[in-house]
Amino acid sequence: MTSPRIRLWDLPTRIFHWGLVLCIAGAVISGQIGGGLIEWHGRIGLAVVGLIVFRLVWGIVGSTYARFLHFFPTPGNIKAYLRGDWQGEGHNPLGALAVFGLLALVAIQAVTGLFSNDDIAFVGPLFDLVGRDLSNRLTGIHHLASNILIGLVVLHIAAVMFYLHARKQNLVKPMITGWKEGHGKSASGGGAVALVVALVLAVGAVYGASGAWLPEPPPPPPTAETPSW
Q1: Which residue from 46, 216, 32, 214 is spatially nearest to 130, judged by alpha carbons?
Q2: 206 and 46 Cβ atoms separated by less than 8 Å
Q3: Contact between 23 and 46 (Cβ < 8 Å)
Q4: CA gyration radius for the chain?
Q5: DSSP tag of 6
Q6: Crossing angle for the helix pair 75-83 and 93-114, nearest 10 degrees?
Q7: DSSP 8-state secondary structure symbol assigned to residue 179
Q8: Which SS3 state, helix, strand or coil, does residue 116 take?
């Protein structure tokens, strides 16, 4: 006999999750190494913009457990969880705090990176909109937030390992398969129309963040010819 199970995470949520994992890893590695990889760092940043916008939209129009209203961490359910009285599927209240924190921090990283510079050869695609002074300040925020983000990711991984070993709850498997063992109500909603809307808005955000719509900079003035005499 097969064990009862519920549909927990829809495919778009899972693709977003693992896509963001890969992008954060790639951004950290390329940012630390620098050099020729800094161009890839910028491309990854654009991908993150698309992922974040997609998740924000999907948090409104996606399936049950992906919707922000379903797992928004109120003081009441946080207290209930700490007392051991909380029951539900998907993100628990503390996990929800981590989700919103990660989304906010990654969004800050992506947005500040669009205007940043490395004082050598790289400038973000929207650098010309803010100028050097503001870009330098945003670059400082970008570097500071990257350290906080790494710490939060480590804390997130530690929490997943804690649930696996201490509470015998495998949080990774449902994010891979989409299914969770046990009784409950399967997720619903988040159909094809919602997916198309989220994808269109995400692609539009990437286009806007890429700076492709900005006018081409004027060509440099011609160099004066040195007289032969």
Answers
A1: 214
A2: yes
A3: no
A4: 22
A5: E
A6: 130
A7: E
A8: coil
